[in-house]
Amino acid sequence: MSEPISALPGARHDGLARIEEAGLQGMITLRGDLATKPVKAAVAAATGGKTPGLRGVAAGKTGTALWMSPDELLLLCPYDEVAQRLEKVTAALGDAHALAVDVSDARAMFSVSGPAAREVLAKLCPVDLSPQAFAPGVVRRSRMAQVPAAIWMPDAQGFRVICFRSVARYAFDLLGAAAQPGSAVGVY
Amino acid sequence: MSTRIANQGRLIDRSKPVRFTFNGKSLQGYAGDTLASALLANDQMLVGRSFKYHRPRGIVASGAEEPNALVGLGQGETFEPNQRATTTELFDGLTAQSQNHWPSLEFDIGAVNSAFARFLPGGFYYKTFIHPRAFWKHVYEPFIRQSAGLGKAPKDRDADTYEHFYVFADLVVIGGGVAGLQAAKAAGETGARVLLIEQTAHWGGRAPVDGGEIDGMAPEDWIAQTLDALRAMPNVTLRARCMGSGVYDHGYVLGYERLTDHAPETAGPRHRLWRIRAGQVITATGAIERPLSFAGNDVPGVMLASAMRDYAVNYGVAPGRRVIVVTNNDDAYRTAIALKRAGIDVLRVLDARTSGGGALMEEAKAQGIRIDCGRAIAKVTGGKRVAKVAICAQEGQGAALEEVACDAVAMSGGWSPVVHLWSHCGGKLIWDDAWAMFRPDPARAPTGADGRPFVTAAGAANGELTLGATLADADAAGKAAAKSAGFKPRRIRTPQGSVTDEAPLVPVWLMPRAAKVELRAKAWLDYQNDVKVSDVQLAAREGYESVEHTKRYTTLGMATDQGKLSNINGLATLSEALGEAIPQVGTTTFRPPYTPISFGAIAGEARGAVFQPLRRTPIHDWHEAHGATWEPVGQWRRPYTYPQNGETPHDAVMREVRNTRQAVGMLDASTLGKILVRGPDAGRFLDLLYTNMMSTLKPGKCRYGLMCSENGFLMDDGVVARIDEETFLCHTTTGGAEHIHAHMEEWLQTEWWDWQVYTANVTEQYAQIAVVGPKARAVLEKLGGMDVSKETLPFMAWADGTLGGIGVRLYRISFSGELSYEIAVRAGQGRALWDRLTQAGAEFGMMPYGTEALHIMRAEKGFIMIGDETDGTVIPQDLGLGWAISKKKEDYLGKRAQQRSHMTDPTRWKLVGLETLDGGVLPDGAYAVAEGTNANGQRNVQGRVTSTYQSPTLGRGIAMGLVLHGPDRMGEVLEFPGTDGKISKARIVDPVFYDKDGEKQNV
């Protein structure tokens, strides 16, 4: 048996912000009518928490749900528990029309932390990253330079960025370039 | 002689000398100088040659509007052409070269063009160089190329870095003069998020130079106090050296920040492009002084009056020691007074107005300056420097009354508000007769998506040219824009600016009014593109009534300064020539950027390693370590082949094909698109998406399918696997995953929104490895873990299981015609499975193969490739794929289109195989010729090559092609002329070259 590996295991860069590949992360894409009981039950089954609203993040006891679109959520849980959570999700959904699928390996995840983290991301993402507009509890599905990315703040200290696995190197290099010494904007 | 003067120069620090070079000559300036002020301080009045006539040109302005003083800055990898000396801050070690001269600035051969000026009139491109025809390419164009153009393109890779910055604000104020400061303050006090940007390094704009009082304070003190107040507001961001470059739809504003141009040794990016989303925009961009059109107004030493005042007050530089001021308005008296105060000899103020000016004229008079009213300049003479001015009456033809020796002329033709940013997004202008200028029409502001105005002009940019009016206007603009952005303005007192009693301006578009033709032919409108009053008048005589046409015909305002000094004078000249009012003639269009911005800033971080995203499979590093040569497929890099022991890529490809056909090969197929489609309506959804029937597919089975666009053209193909009753997994081509997923979502969201189907793009969740060849089964059996026998897993079936302890989904599908398995594994274990397979396969002679071997093997089998056999104009029927088009289905996307008459035309070219008579390889894309020529005299054609390869299996060249009536012409020989002049002959054959009955894949 070989252990699965993440896209850029151990990658780390220290510049204006610290950029680290965040390792294996369980992720389940759930598509369905977010207002219905079975979907809410499925979210609770996977994360132990609530279904987030528009552009929201709902942290539960055992996982986190990120709003992706009006009919799509991304459910986060420990990587090793995805199969088991998917079973619970499927059971909770019952006959309801929905789609739940493991996408843990399709993505790469980075943590961007430090005082300049907001500015580093604001160089790459067309998103209002001011503290007034972007705080824990908010997620944006946007782009980072030329690739799709989702960003949120698990806490006040930093950000998580998810992109597709194939562009992990590009994303890491981009964040490193945006964090180059001498490039602090000084706005946030 | 231009020199440094004592006791002046509020922006320079005389304790900090700075060394720089101009055309290799070492010169000295001070910290705080611009390159222009430092050049003037060194008596370097001549800074360049004009575009067409190579006339000597000097510095005219002191800011962004400068047309002449363009230099090449830096060297090698930091070289940049066409940089304005007036907006270049001086730093130690700066190197500048003048442009557009040969062999030297002082002596220029191109200046003989000036002697032939009558052969280079307005529109000369279109007139002079037409005949004889052949001369254009061999004589005229090389000559024009040699003499045209300003700066030289850089040769080296840019050493600097650049970046973007996205920022959101309730309100953006563009321009940090007193108007911008007050507007930002008024808006900031409402609590709105305000971003204030200023193109220069200094706040306050012209006010400290122009004087007056604000709330009883000197302007400089008021500016300092206001800046303190703004900096204390947490909701206000100030940015100097950041130009408002453009205003676009939806409150999108570009700011161009120059971070290290003034300090190149500093770490970090050189420029930053601010990509701003603003609720409201205030343009407080000031005004630009207009030149006067008199003969010799381009002789070095003739300057805008305001610029001469700036050089004296801001930089302690006297552009001349004996100055004549010429004006049609009161403002130029400020220059006369400032120069006099700095100890410069002001010989004369020539006021074109018969009654002269107001209070400022009286002040000048009191200082002992001689003022001649109703007078004009007939002509300035001097070569590389003003030597003499001939004075005449404004109302006349230019007969000289007097000649006065001097070394500089300060001119003022009035002021034009900088309406560029107001106009970028559709703001309209009105003509102000009193000030002879276009100003923003507040009733026709640029409007946003909601139809409401989102740009407000403030201060001088709004046509309020006096200090008092500017401040009041800016205060009102700040409050109004904040209110529009949803904030409540506070009742705060408006600052009071002093009011000077000024006499009205009298428009002067030509000096003297009835100047003779020889004077008009030396009266410049556009310095940079060498357009004179006589050129515009000629254009009018030749029938150019539209200002846009005249612009292009004469090139007025088309240079890098975009006519900041010349446009209004030019269109006024045109309107006089046409006998129409100026507003009827109108302006040309103002387009971003306000001044040129660097390509680096536009590209931002996208260069070098991050120029473009490069998609890598989980097995990418292995390929790289094993010497793969790459084929770009979309943004992916796929191994093309793996040369071994010094093989050529061609030999490697041949080996890979042979090895796969004879033993076993493996391919990284991870890039194939994989889209999960799920729901009660998934089957009927796929029946409409694919040309064949998918709803009848049984769980556990696979089916090849074709996807067409609404217009019937084949857009993608791939294998669909049914996972369970409600779930399908659709494989797409490598390049197709994203757009096919988008295609599915579009139909689901716009047409079949009530169907119960969800999709998910799971392409990257899996690594996919094809194990292909007669020994493929043996390799998998060696790994062990699941039954891979023909009985349990027949052709076109799939199963979940494990191989070598790794969970997999195994598909029995084949794109090569061999016994073949495609193994999907979670991406995080893709590399591990690949490594295990290479170990297990070693004893069977397994080798990896790349995309070229894949292509050859599919061509040997007559399988089509999207992008080779298709090009957006090909339908499945052209490719003999009728078997994959369901006859039972009522409909599918493209069905109706495929019934159009042109689609059912029997003369559509159809797919065939092609076999060269000599065994060689047909050139890719070659056409099969037919008898005769078409209406354009081109040879008729009857087919073309779509794929062509050397087949190691058959030991000969094979090809596929589309041929007129192809399938009915088996055995016929076609001729394919190559680009090398040789003609290849090929016989039409069945496109399936290898294993026609498909026995090898079904074992």
Automatic annotation (TrEMBL), chain A:
It comes from the Bacteria. It holds the Pfam family SoxG. InterPro entries: SoxG, TrmE/GcvT-like. This is Sarcosine oxidase subunit gamma. It comes from Antarcticimicrobium luteum.
Automatic annotation (TrEMBL), chain B:
SUPFAM superfamilies: Aminomethyltransferase beta-barrel domain, FAD/NAD(P)-binding domain, Folate-binding domain. Residues 619-889 form the GCVT N-terminal domain. InterPro entries: 2Fe-2S-bd_N, FAD/NAD-bd_sf, FAD/NAD-binding_dom, GcvT/YgfZ/DmdA, GcvT/YgfZ_C, GcvT_C, GCVT_N, Sarcosine_oxidase_asu. Transmembrane segments: none annotated. GO terms for biological process: tetrahydrofolate metabolic process. Coiled coil: none annotated. One of its GO terms (molecular function) is sarcosine oxidase activity. Keywords: Oxidoreductase. It comes from the Bacteria. Residues 522-604 form the SoxA A3 domain. Residues 170-421 form the FAD/NAD(P)-binding domain. Residues 910-995 form the Aminomethyltransferase C-terminal domain. Belongs to the GcvT family. This is Sarcosine oxidase subunit alpha family protein. It comes from Antarcticimicrobium luteum.
